[in-house]
Task: structure prediction
Amino acid sequence: MNVLITSAACATAQIIADALCSAHTLRLTDLPANAGGEIVANDLCHESETDDLVAGIDAIVNIGYQGQSGSNTHLMDYHTRRMYNLLHAASDAGVGRYINISTLRLFEDHEENLVVTERWRTDPSAEDAELLSAHMAEYVCKEFARDRLIQVANLRLGWPFVTDSSTAPNDTAAISSGVIGVAVEAALTSDQLTQWQDIHIQSFVANQRFVTSTASKLLPGLAERLSL
Amino acid sequence: MKILILGGNGMLGPWAVKAMKDRHDILLTDINAPRGDYKGEYRKLSADDVDGVVKAAAGMDVIVNLSVLRPHRQLAFDVNTMGNYAMMVAAREHRIKRVITSGPHYQMAGQQYEEWDFDLNPDMPPAPGTRLYAHTKALGQEVCRVFSERHGIQVITLLYYNMKHSWDLSGMEPGGPEYHNDMTPYSTAWQDCGTAVQAAVEVPDEQLATRCETFFVFPDLPHGKFNNEKTKRVLGWKPRYHIEGLWNKEFRTPPSNLHEAF
Result:
C-alpha cells in the first residue's frame, strides 16, 4: 500500500513510519520549515503541488495533534485550511482511506470516573491551541466523510507516549509506541470501518482511563495488545 | 452600547449600521473604506488580524462579525474561520460578554438537510459538508461554540441566505429580480437583515436559553422547508417587508412591499 504520512518530522509520525515501513511504501511530507532528507516539503496549499503529493497514494496518515508547532494562528490555520486542502486533493485523487491521528486529551477535563467512549462529545480547551486545533482538524475530516468523499478513521490516542515498560502509576491514559504502530497498521487494513469512525486507543494499564473495546473490535491484531 | 463591527463595509454591514447607528456607539472596521455617507468612526482592519481585532475591541460591549469571503480558498479560511477566532480571542481578552456572528444557512443545514428534510430549525447539529463557504463558516461557528463553553461568552449566530431589495425583490444575482420562482431556501429584505443584527445586539440575556444560540433570519415563508419561529419569538424580530412576489403567481402585496401596508 502507498501511504502518505504528514507532519513527518514530528515524533508521532516517526513512530508510525517505523511501524509501517516494512510493509508499505511510505511517502513522508511536512511543511518546508520541517522537511529535509527523505521528507518531502509541501505547504498543503490549494495549488497543484498538493494534488501531486497525493497522486498514487492509497491511504493517508495525518498527524492531527502535535504534529506542528508555532503560533496559535499557525496551528489553527494548519489544522483547518491545510487539512481541507489535503482532504480535497485526496478526495479528488480517489484516496481510499484517511487516518487522522487525534488525541484522547480532548476528554481530559472529564473526571476519570466516567466511562468515556467514542459516543461522547469532545470537550476541547479554548486555551490550549494544540487541543483546539486537534478538535478543528477532526471537524474538517468529519465533513469530508459526511459528504462521502473519503473514508476517515479518527484514532484518538492516549497520552503520554511511553515505552512498553515505562508507565508511571498516574499515567492512566498512557499509550505505548508499540500499540500506536499496531493500531495504525490495523486501521489501514481493517474492513470493519464505517465512513466516519472514531476509535479510542490507549495501552492496557492499571486504572485504565479510557475504554478500548471499539478498537479491539474493529482493528484486527490490536485486541491482544489492549488486554495483556 | 459600544459595538465593534468587523467586516462592516460589505453587503450586510451598511444595513446593520443603519439599524443601529442612532442607538449605539459603533466602531466600524473593514479592509475597505466605508461609503461616503457614513459619518461614524472607522478603522481599516482585516477580521483575521488577531492582534488588530484585540486592540480594536478594547472597551467594547459587543463584537459583531459580518465579514464574509466566499470563493478564494485561502481568503475564505482567513476571513470566515480565523475571523471568528480573532473575535473570540478579543472577547476573552477584554471580557466582552456578547458576540454576534453571521453566515449562510448551510453552514448549519448543509446539503444533506436541505435536500432531504423539512421544518429545519437552528437548534439542529451543524452538518455543513465540504462546500468552501459553508465549511469555513461552520468552522468559525465551532470556534465560537468552544470559546463560549469555556468562557461563558454569549454567542449569537445569524444565518441568512438570499438578500433582496425591498422595492423590486432583486438580489445580488445578475439579470434583475426573478419572480414566481421557488424561494428555497429563503430570502430576506436587506433592511430586515440589518434589523436582525440590532435585535441580536439588544435581546436581553434572559431571553436566551443557552450561551450559544443560532437563528435563521427570514420572514414567514409558505414552503415549510425552514422554520423561523425561534427568531421571531426569542429575538422579537419582526420583518417589515414582504417578499411574496418571489412565489405568488399574482401580486398581492403593495408596491412598497411593506408589511404594515398589507
Q: What stands out?
A: The first strand of chain B starts at residue 2 and ends at 6.
